[in-house]
């Protein structure tokens, strides 16, 4: 007997279905180490719950200038794999909520989790911290 949510013909892998992150409007995920290294040399703003790195992309880079790109990272200082993955899930949720409104097209952002704080702080505070960091990074003097 198959569960009611199972497909009738057995297992079906829908490979055409986009992931939750790729369905964001004009938001791509950083995956190459060189992109993370470029962001590490750019502007940064620390908050109580995360570190945010941001940089405008140059016209010579292959990715279109309209897209916002974002990357997530958590070191082993955060904890074991379960804890790191939980922290990254929270950072992805924050980026999903804030970047379509406040993020700038043609920019790369990297969100770095902090030990204890990224997981322990309430979600609303994480969102407020990320908004505040983006306002600082895109401030009037920038």
UniProtKB/TrEMBL annotation:
Class in the EC hierarchy, top level: hydrolase
UniProt key word RNA-binding: yes
Pfam families named in the record: Ribonuclease_P (PF00825)
Enzyme nomenclature, EC number: 3.1.26.5
Alphabetized PROSITE patterns for the sequence: RIBONUCLEASE_P
Top-level taxon: Bacteria
Keywords: Endonuclease, Hydrolase, Nuclease, RNA-binding, tRNA processing
Any GO MF annotation of the entry: ribonuclease P activity
Reactions performed catalytically: Endonucleolytic cleavage of RNA, removing 5'-extranucleotides from tRNA precursor
Family: Belongs to the RnpA family.
NCBIfam families registered for this protein in UniProt: rnpA
Subunit field text: Consists of a catalytic RNA component (M1 or rnpB) and a protein subunit.
Function: RNaseP catalyzes the removal of the 5'-leader sequence from pre-tRNA to produce the mature 5'-terminus. It can also cleave other RNA substrates such as 4.5S RNA. The protein component plays an auxiliary but essential role in vivo by binding to the 5'-leader sequence and broadening the substrate specificity of the ribozyme.
UniProt protein name: Ribonuclease P protein component
Organism (species): Lutimaribacter marinistellae
Gene it is expressed from: rnpA
